[in-house]
Amino acid sequence: MTFILGTRGSALALTQSGMAADQIVAAGNFEVELRTVRTEGDVLTGPLSQMGGTGVFAATLRTRVLDGSVDFAVHSLKDLPTAPCPGLVVAGIPEREDPRDALIARDGLTLEKLPAGARIGTGSPRRAAQLRLLRPDIEIVDIRGNVGTRLARVAGFESYGNQSTPAGDCDAVVLAASGLRRLGFEETVTDYLDPTQMLPAAGQGALALEVRESDVEKATELAEAIRAVDHAPTRWAVTAERALLARLEAGCAAPVGTFARLEEQTLVLDAVVANPDGSESLRHQATTSDLSADGAKTLGEKLADELLSLGAARLANLTL
Prior knowledge:
Layout: E1 2-7, H1 11-27, E2 31-36, H2 40-43, H3 55-66, E3 72-76, E4 88-92, E5 101-105, E6 119-121, H4 125-134, E7 139-141, H5 147-151, E8 172-176, H6 177-183, E9 191-193, E10 207-212, H7 213-217, H8 221-228, H9 232-248, E11 256-263, E12 266-274, E13 281-288, H10 293-309, H11 312-315
Parallel strand pairs: 1-2, 1-3, 6-7, 6-8
Antiparallel strand pairs: 3-10, 4-10, 5-8, 5-9, 11-12, 12-13
């Protein structure tokens, strides 16, 4: 028996989907075939925050699963809208890869050692706001594209891109460490930005394995194999992060960072809400000993409410 996995065609998406497929095949007695799906986000140009957010990458894949063109899909969890999709279930979330953001800079420089006026490329309002908080003397350059294209924007890393895109015009870029690790590009990183410095996006570093709800209800062979690769500590962490984002009604256009992790028998959640210009921020932490999906969701909502009571909506221009 062979099941069809829908994936975007980028090198990172294909790599992540292949990794997930290997885990699922190991858990079930069947084969998995990857099928490339071109999404709206792959076609449109311009800042993601003006295109409907990262959800533009997930919408077409979800449609293909629902109409039966493919059997399931693998998403970067940070690309999934927090609202559930009727008819689909995220049945598996494998163990999370490195959740940190990573700086790739010319001449091996760290964030601290970049000169005043340095140009740092990112298409993320979350990263831009926190970079401005850390280094108000730098210039943010809005960029997008696949990992290679973005790496090529850094002087000295032009060979990672192609001749049809800008290259070498930035002193540094910030990308997700997880994507660089999965692609084997760890050697490009000149500075890992610890969550104490910069909080990542909700779900960063985690993958979401999404299947039809009917398959889960029937406990099909595919659904059971997907459920078998689910990693409980990762699910609790990302559930808390996404619950916070949902309560704030914040998408990728909002300068909100959050990170949850299990410390002994306690789930710890940090969150930051920043003014887009980096002039002001709110950062708070909450914990729970209720290690369950419901406990994690309650934790995220509780911390979001605390931030809202302190003026988070005004600070980050959130529309509630």
